[in-house]
Each structure stands twice: as structure tokens, then as C-alpha cells.
Design brief:
The protein is mainly alpha-helical. The chain has seven helices and no strands.
Length: 156
């Protein structure tokens, strides 16, 4: 069976327009969330678009984030010394998924399984990278997520 007709996660979600709607609405919710608002208190107006571009690239879309911001090493640097906690991480993931539902984004089991897989994996890395002593590998590759990714164990 050939997979050449299988769309990327980026295509399935609706491309950059859908991701921009998601991140814009999500960060509107974040500003009113008691648990997350303090974490993002200094967020710039361009933050939602940066996150949308990052997600777009991870999900198989354009490489704009890497070209304009420096790829995964740049994202890792955004989390250094932020001291993120698991309860904040869980709330971030939950609120993002609630926002996806609110906006009527694809909710088929295959897509949501892939999306949740990435959000769990990526948000857990963000927590790890936010702890004291975390460093940035300048050669860290951009994550690429598809319909059934399984990553090996994290070995720091």
C-alpha cells in the first residue's frame, strides 16, 4: 500500500491559516487563565504567529520558523530557566486541545492521536529545557511529526 497520497498533518489541519487561528485564540485564552497567564505575562504580540510557524514546520509545512528564527535551538532557548512545572505543562496541552475543539479543528482519532503525541512530547521537552542547568545544542534538529511518530527514550 502506497502512502504517497497521505496528506501531512499540516495539510490535514488546514495549513498556516488554521494554525494561526488556533494559536491566536489559544493565547487569548492563556491571558485569562490563572495558571498560565503569569508564564506568558511578557509575551509579545507576535508570539502566537511564531508558535503557529513552529507548529507548521513540525507538522510538515513550510520551514519559515527555521529560516526566520533559527529552528529548534531558538525554541529551546525560549524555555531556558523558565522553571516550568508539570501542572503548567498539563494545563497548556489541555487548553490548546480545548481551543482546537472550540474552533472545530479536525477531531478524527488519527489526527488527534498524532497531535496529542506531539504536544505531550514537545511540552515535556519544554519542561526539561526550562530547568536549571539545561543547555542548548546549537545543532538540535527541528522535530518532524507525522501520523505515527514514536521517538526513542530521551537521553539528556
Amino acid at each position: 500500500m502506497s502512502n504517497h497520497n497521505v496528506p501531512s498533518l499540516y495539510e490535514w489541519v488546514g495549513g498556516i491559516d488554521a494554525l494561526n487561528r488556533l494559536t491566536k485564540r489559544f493565547y487569548e485564552h492563556v491571558t485569562n487563565d490563572a495558571q498560565l497567564a503569569p508564564v506568558f505575562a511578557h509575551m509579545g504580540a507576535d508570539h502566537p504567529a511564531h508558535v503557529a510557524a513552529f507548529l507548521a514546520e513540525v507538522l510538515g509545512g513550510p520551514t519559515k520558523y527555521s529560516e526566520e528564527h533559527g529552528g529548534h535551538p531558538h525554541m529551546i532557548r525560549q524555555h531556558l530557566n523558565r522553571h516550568l512545572a508539570q501542572d503548567q505543562r498539563r494545563r497548556w496541552v489541555g487548553l490548546l486541545l480545548e481551543t482546537a475543539d472550540e474552533l472545530g479543528m479536525p477531531d478524527d482519532p488519527e489526527f488527534r492521536s498524532a497531535l496529542v503525541g506531539y504536544l505531550e512530547w514537545g511540552s515535556r521537552l519544554a519542561v526539561i529545557n526550562s530547568q536549571p542547568g539545561a543547555t542548548v545544542d546549537p545543532l538540535a534538529l527541528m522535530p518532524k511529526w507525522g501520523w505515527g511518530e514514536v521517538k526513542g527514550p530521551y537521553v539528556g
